[in-house]
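Schema walk-through. Below, the input block comes first and the output block second. Nothing else is stored per chain. Lengths vary across the set, and this one has 490 residues.
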Amino acid sequence: MRQIPILIFLFLLILAFSIFSCRKHDEISTNSELKLSFSADSVVFDTVFSSLGSATRQLMIYNNNKERLNIGSIRLGNANNSPFRINVDGKPGTQIYDIEIPGNDSLYVFLRVTIDPADQQNPFVVEDDLVFETNGNSQQVKLVAWGQDAVYIVADQQIAGFPPFKVVADSLETTVWTAEKPYVVYGYALIDSYGTLQIEAGARVHFHDKSGLWSFSEGQLIVNGTAEAPVLFRGDRLESSDGFDYRNVPGQWDRIWLMEARAGADHQISHAIIRNGYIGIQAESFLKPTEAALRIDNTIIENHTGMGIFSRLYAIEAKNTVIANCGNYALALTGGGDYRFVHTTIANNWSLSVRNNPSLFFNNFLLDSSNNPVAIPFQFAMGNSLIYGSNSEEFHYEFVSSADTNYVFENCLIKTERRIADWPGFVNSIANENPLFKDYENFNYRPDTLSPVIGKGKPEFAQEVPFDLDGVSRTESPDLGAYQFVPANR
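--- output ---
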């Protein structure tokens, strides 16, 4: 009989402990170290609308902690100005307060976006942040949708050590981009080995932040612009407000990256404008030495935070080309190679930050795994061209011995502290005279009336490129650079 009270006591003790445990479990934790998890770090509305459109996506919120949490608020970063709307536990709006989520549980957030793709005032890519505030912690999930009717290239693959990409021209495939709609690249558009991407005259290619165009080893890029309809490469932000114009803001996208070309398949860029990225063109032998060249003509590469053209052990021929306004080197030719530039204008009065490097740099070596230089043959020739900028020295090189190395500037204007008369690499060239561009601040690199480049060109070079970037004949009395002087009365 005495055992019964003991059993009752033990039962009540266990019951009380269970109730206490449940209450502790159900209490809302205020521990700031506890965070939420999400089914994705970004939600992409990748539907391309043909008319006023809307789409719905869902996001899972996970509380992977044992403790119950109270989400103080779930809100859109742009609040009522956002085209996105949210719904949590049946509560719609732009900001939802005090949502509880038990330990080791989850809940849905439904997201909706409404956009008129025919509205040309929309940006190509519409973004916002979904912000979660929990116990003083702020966590974000990126929201992305398309804002205009365009062809969207969205990265869907990634390999360790490389940027995210989408294959746009597969092996043994030729893909053609036309001028019918603009192309918007989100990530990298990849040309695979033995694939070819042809871009027709008038095409517009817009890159999102950190995005670019990438030709993998033995792929091929062909840009077929014309004087009347050049191909445009630039960022995807087009808006202008309060005097701030994104059309002139550098660093909005990454680069055009060309790995080694295969024999008989030169990369070709004709009549293009490449503007406002980090590097305009990066051409390099990556897996093996290139077996073909990059050929550029009638092209403007300008306003890049890094470099206009950066090469590593490559072959480049450029004619009627402008490389301007870069925060680092305008033209950096490294690791040896074979280069020829005719009627090229390099103009670099970069003013957005301190530029410590000259406009033109080249060397004839690569570094091995122990950082020792390995000499590689280097050939460089420039004719009827000009190199000018805001630095006192706009040309520098680094050479090591044991490699066949030659460079020559013929009929060129160069800003340099060297006494070029004493250097055999300078032939019939001019040092340190201001080329007197018409309007540098507005990207007009044509020579003005009193420019010293007028009539200083060698006719043999002009015969190779008989018309300047504006289609003006230069064969009679060629000027230096990509533009021929035109008197005001013509």
